[in-house]
User: Fold Zn-dependent hydrolase from Mesorhizobium calcicola.
Amino acid sequence: MIGVDAQRLLGRIRELGTVGRDGEGRLIRLAASDTDKQGRDLLVGWLRQAGLDIAIDRVGNIFGIWQSADNAGQAPLLIGSHIDTVIDAGIYDGCYGVLAGLEVIEMLMASGFSPLRPIAVAAFTNEEGVRYTPDMMGSLVHAGGIGVETVLAAVGTDDSVLGQELARIGYAGDKEPGFLKPHAYLELHIEQGPVLEREGLPIGAVENLQGISWQRITIDGVANHAGTTPMSMRSDAGHAAARVITFLHDRAKASNTPTVATIGTMRFEPNAINVIPSRAVFTVDLRDPDEQRLQAEEVALAAYLEQLAAAENVTVSVERLARFEPVLFDIRIVELIEAAAKSRGLGAKRMTSGAGHDAQMMARIAPAAMIFVPSAGGISHSPREHTEDAELVAGANILLDVITQLAK
Assistant:
């Protein structure tokens, strides 16, 4: 049984993790930025060294393709993830999956293995969605879920335009998104949660992925003096917003379901210590692996907002930012992950992914699944993100075994 080159894989993860550090030492590779270009250049260099055919599409998705004259006409197996990061990121999120995919291909090439179909690795653009929205953008375009021109016209948080930025950094490719139609898609990722570590298991076989509902809520009241306005005469947007937070938290906590609710951002106007807020703007993130439950939570929130407007003498408006249905991954690939773990003497657990990943988009067009490895303390999107070297290598070996089976 062959295994990945641990030294090469771990060395690349660490080397890529040095690219994009700011003056404070924070890792920041936002999509289509100068530091993203540096990371892309490093990755493309490794793809070339491996002898892979390199293709870049119009939205900057990067593909390294291993094919031969014997299998060039077949739909490829695709391994993918991303190398863009959040602000002050860890070194594993996304990058591990891309670099492990490259490592798997290199080991299969070196072993003399002859796959019946091409094998490719992809680094998708703007998975994190920090600079441009929506997140998982590159894979969504590839799967046909959003138009190319819409994405290229996306305006970033810094007022940049994605298409212009991709051209500026040299990654506005000539391939049409979706040009590569995969036979199957597999993504290896750190869990970004505490389950595997808590249960002492090295491998997660991800069988489904939560649906996500993002909304921006604006509550308008009346600004007034904080000292002279009686409580009974207030139209307080801040208090109304607080009631929404409490409603969502209490409802999710009291349920016996996996539903989670988060208020991640909030802004008050005029944002003064001695003025009653005239406006509160905040975001709501609802997630559940069951579509009917997710819809029920959306309905419950809408009904509560209607009641709140009357009770608090405020007006409420809602903007939908993103909506993705839950995803069921391919059971055959999930079973292959479990079998691969068993053959290497590793415990595995079927899991739900609480975070969004490129795999949920690719599942629209091909059988797909994910492999998880533990995250220390369940921490991710943080410089404290950590997975033990042995766990990273174990996950890459499972990826190698599953791809080998799919390629036979």
Remarks:
- The first helix runs from residue 6 to 16.
- The mean pLDDT is 97.
- The first strand starts at residue 53 and ends at 56.
